[in-house]
Amino acid sequence: MCKVNDIRQLRAISKDIRTDVVNSLASAGSGHLGGSLGLADIFTVLYHRILNHNPQEPNWALRDRLILSIGHVAPVLYAALASCGYFPKQELLTLRKFGSRLQGHPGRDHGLPGIELSAGSLGQGLSVAVGMALAAKADGAPWRVFSVHGDGELQEGSIWEAAMSASHYNLDNLIAIVDRNYCQIDGRTSSVMEIEPLAQKWEAFGWDVKHCNGNSIEELVEVLEFPATKGKPRVIIAKTLMGQGVASITDDYRWHGKAPSVQEAAQFIAEINSYYTE
Amino acid sequence: MYQNKGNKATRFGFGEGVVSLGHKYSNTVVLGADITASVSLNGFAEVFPNRFYSLGIAEQNVVGVATGFALSGKLPILSTYGVFAAMRTADQVRISVCYNNVHVIIGGAHAGISVGPDGATHQALEDIALMRSLPNMTVLSPCDANQAKLATIAAAEQVNGPVYIRFGREPVPNFTSETDAFVLGKGQLLRKGSAVTIVATGHMVWEALQAAVVLEKEGIDARVVNIHTIKPIDREILVSAARETGAVVTVEEHQVHGGLGGAVAEVLSQEHPVPMDIIGMPDCFGESGTPDELLEKYGLTASAIAARTLRLYQKKQTITAKHIYSNERSN
Question: Which of A57, A207, A208, B122 meets the CB 3.0–4.6 Å disulfide criterion with A202?
C-alpha cells in the first residue's frame, strides 16, 4: 500500500470518507453517524499513511493489525477500507442490509476483506489487541497492533484489565487510540460516568500517553509517526467532535446512534463540502 | 468390564494433555489466571516458561488475549474455574471467541458438586447449559483422567474452533485407557443392555457403571453410554439407545436444566421420544461438604441412580402395558 505523504491529499480522502459515511448510513436507514464522522480523520491517517497493509493481500502475515473495539462505528471502517480498495465503494450502500458483507457491527463471518475482528460488545478489543501484540513479540515479528476505542467504552472494567496486562508485558508494539469526544448515548461522559483524569489513569497503568486533536490530519500524522517508547504501550487520547464535518450536528450526542434521512444526507453532504472549502 | 485403575482427578488428565500439546505443537501458548496449579496449568508453565503467560485475576482479559493469539496463528489454551470460564467471561466467550470462531481451548475446572468444601460459589453447575448454547462452540466433558488427557489433545487436533472442556477437582476412578481412541462427537457404549439406558457424562459415568451393576442384581439389564462430547452430540447412539431400550436416564453433575439431560431430550423428543428421567442438581445452588456427602444428598451416587433408573424402567413397563391394552380395546 503506497502511503500518502501530502496532507492536502489526505484531507481530500477524509472528505470522501465522510461523504461515504453519510451516504451509506442514509442508505441503511439506521446506524451510528456521529462517531463515524468524528473518526474520519483518524481512519484516513491510519489507512492511508500509518498502517503497513496490502488491500490486494488482506491476510498478509506481516501487516499491521487494526482492531476496531467500538464496532458501532463500522461505517467509518468500511468507508476507509473501500477507499483503499479492499472492496468496491458501491458496496458501501449495502450497509446493514440483508445479505450484505457490511454488517451493522463488523463480522468476519460475512467475509468482508480487511476486517480483523468481529466486535461490537464494548470493552473487548483491547484484550484481543494485547493477545495479538504478545503473539508478534513471541515471533519477533515487526508488525504492530492499533486499537480504536471510544471514551465511553473506557467505563468497561475489562479495558483496564487489558491495560494492566499490556504494560506488564511491555507491549511497545501496541498503540491504542481513544476517540475522546466527551459523548455517549445518554449524554456527556462527565455526567453519565466521569472517566477523568484520563491521562493519569493510563499513566498509572504504565502506558505512554500522547494527546492530539483527532480531527487534525497534521497532528494525527505527527503523533502516529512518533517513535515508540521502548517497553511501553502507547495510548493516544485524540480529541474529536462527534459529527465533525457536518456543522449542524457537530458535538451533538443525539447523533450518536442515528442515521440521516435522504434529505438530511443531501444537506449534510453540502455541509461537508463547505467544511472542506473553509 | 471396566476396572478402576486408581483414583485420579480429571484436572490432572487435562494438565497432562496440555503439556503433550506443548511438546507436539510449538504454537501452543497457555494463559494463566492466577490459579494455575489448581487448574493444572503449572506443568506446562514449568516445561515451557516462554510460552506461558500469567495474566492475573482478570478472566475477561484472558479470554480476549486468547482470541488475539488465535487470530495470530497461535493455539491458545486457558483454564480457570468453570464458574468463571463459562460465566464471568460469557460475553467475551460469545463475541470474541465464538462469533470470531477462533480455535481457543477453554478449560473449565472444578466442575460439579464434587468440588466439595468450597461451596456454592465455586461449584460449576450451569456451565454446560451456557457453553452449549453458543454457536460454534464444542463442549467436552471427559469421564476420567485418562479421557481428560485424550479430550484435551482432541480439542487441539479434531476441532478448528472454540472448545470448552469441563473437568473436576477430586480424585475419581480412572477406568478408561490412555490408548483408547477418542472420537470427538461420538458417544461410547460402555455396557450393553436392553432394558433401559443410562446416559452419563463426566464423573457420573463411573457411578452409572456401578448403578448398572446394582440393577443387574435386580435382573435389569441396563445399557450405559458415556457422552464425552456434549456438543456436537452423538444423535445416533442416543436414538438407537431409545429405540432398543425404550427408556433413557441421564446423569450429570450439573443443573437439570440445559445440561446433558436437556441435550439428550432435544434429540429424543424430535427423533424417538421415550420416557426419560434427568438426574442432576435440582435447580438449586450447591453447598459445603465432602464430595461424598454432597453426592449422597443430591442423589448422584450409584445406588441413587440405580433407584431412579429402576423407577423409570417400571414406568416404561406400565406405559407399554397400557399401550398394549388400549391397542387391544381399539381393535
Answer: A207
